[in-house]
Specification:
Elements: E1 4-7, E2 13-17, E3 28-30, H1 40-46, E4 51-56, E5 61-65, H2 71-88, H3 110-129, E6 132-140, E7 143-150, H4 158-173, E8 179-182
Parallel strand pairs: 7-8
Antiparallel strand pairs: 1-2, 2-5, 3-4, 4-5, 6-7
Helix pairs in contact: 1-2
C-alpha cells in the first residue's frame, strides 16, 4: 500500500491519502482518544504518542500532532498505523449515523439555503484540498458561524481564510451576510 502525504497550511497537521475510501460520505473529526470510540482507524492513530486530532474524509485522513514533536519522528508511525488498520479489514468508522454535513432542509430560510449551497460547492472542496473542512453552524443577524475541522482547526491561517476568503465571497453573493465567525469549541 502506498500512502501519499501532503503538507497543509497548518504546520501541526499532515494530510494522508491512502488511495482507499475512508468514509462513504461526510466527515468525522476526533479531538482525542475518548471521542474516537466509534472509529477503529482514529482509535488506532490515537495510540501513537503525540497525535492530538484525527480528521477523516472520503479519501483522506488529516492528523494533527502536539507542537513539541517533529513530523520526522511521527510520520513513519502514522503511516504504519494506517497500513495496519487497512490490513485488518475493519471499517474506518463503525456504522453510526454521520450528520457532519446537513444539506438544505425545508425549514431553512432562502438565505441559509444559499449559504449552505455556496459552502458546499465553493468552500468545502477548496479546504478539503488543504486537509480540512468547514461546516455551517448558524446564521443570525447577518453573522454566519462556521465550524473549522481537520487541518483548519487551529490553523494559523484559518482566520484569514474566514475573513478574506469566505466572508468576502458570502458578502458578495448574499447581501444579508455582514460577518463570518468561527464557532467556539
Amino acid at each position: 500500500m502506498f500512502i501519499q502525504t501532503e503538507d497543509t497550511p497548518n504546520p501541526e497537521t499532515l494530510k494522508f491519502i491512502p488511495g482507499n475510501i475512508i468514509l462513504k460520505s461526510g466527515t468525522a473529526d476526533f479531538s482525542g482518544k475518548e471521542a474516537s470510540t466509534d472509529s477503529p482507524l482514529a482509535s488506532r492513530l490515537f495510540e501513537i504518542d503525540g497525535v492530538s486530532r484525527v480528521f477523516l474524509a472520503t479519501d483522506f485522513i488529516s492528523v494533527t500532532k502536539v507542537p513539541h514533536l517533529d513530523w520526522n519522528t511521527l510520520k513513519p508511525e502514522i503511516l504504519t498505523g494506517i497500513m495496519e488498520h487497512f490490513s485488518t479489514g475493519l471499517p474506518s468508522i463503525n456504522d453510526t449515523e454521520n450528520k457532519e454535513f446537513e444539506p438544505n432542509n425545508n425549514e431553512d430560510s432562502e438565505t441559509i439555503k444559499q449559504i449552505k449551497d455556496l459552502l458546499e460547492t465553493r468552500v468545502r472542496p477548496a479546504v478539503a484540498m488543504d486537509g480540512g473542512d468547514i461546516t455551517f453552524c448558524s446564521f443570525e443577524s447577518g453573522v454566519v458561524t462556521l465550524q473549522m475541522k481537520g487541518a483548519c482547526a487551529g490553523c494559523p491561517s484559518s482566520t484569514a481564510t474566514l475573513k478574506m476568503g469566505i466572508e468576502n465571497m458570502l458578502r458578495h453573493y448574499i447581501p444579508e451576510v455582514t460577518e463570518v465567525r468561527a464557532a467556539e469549541l
